[in-house]
User: Fold this.
Amino acid sequence: MKSLNISPIAVLSFLAFASVQVIGTSCFAGAWTMPKGKAYVKLSVNAYESDEQFDGEGKEKDFSDNGSFKDRNLGIYAEYGLTDTVGLVYSGSYKSLEKKNDHVTQKFDGFSDMDLAVKYRLMNNRLGVVSVQALVKVPEAYDDDEVLLPGNAQYDYEIRLMAGRSLYPVIPGYVNVEGAYRLRDREPADEMRFLGEFGMDFLKKGYARFKVETILGMDNADKVTNTANPNLSADFDLVKLSMTLGCRVTDILGIEIETIREVEGENVSKGNTYSASVICMY
Assistant:
């Protein structure tokens, strides 16, 4: 693990993960699983832009030669309740990437990596919900000789522990925390990942969600290679904060808007993501 000087914000997710038992709206995310035969599908339009990066010491600097990077993509996240305790998860996206500077413009249009996962609920009682998830990232939707790659063109394998708890009747909300280890094939370094999440209902149909996510490279990359995509360093650290506002239009349909800010890191780009999503539960 590198010597990134992570601020208290960067470790909030880890502290939340360690302290979930001291905190006392039903949701279908994180540790919660879908009921048997039910599905949750989220379709998103996402726009990411960056013209600066975190260097190897965590300092912010502009891309050279007036450079910029854009990632426009259509994403899908789907979860299906195979049983009340076992869920199947799929996520993927179709990306339109552009990196340019004063001298060259590089583009990519096509499908990116797919995530396939199985989630198993270990516990569901008055203390909360605890689940474990096994995930594999599949890079078979694109050629690894693309000039501007949408992924590292290698498999990832992740095990994730998730814990959640409703805060009702104190407040109409919930907390969810997660910790994961991601084993990365070939050159990239393995990663530890932490996530802390708080959600709350407001008015009759509205809700808000706040997240902090931390990714820590484990300093075991086979080699550090340069890539045209500034988000694909072989070994990086990153801290992201996100805020989501949503509305339940009907019992099965919802809409969301989200913003994600990259606030700290090393060896990775620094940018913002803006998203609009349609959610269906049936």
About this structure: Confidence is low (pLDDT under 50) at residues 8-26. The CA atoms of residues 50 and 271 lie 4 Å apart. Residues 8-281 form a domain with the Porin fold (CATH 2.40.160.40).
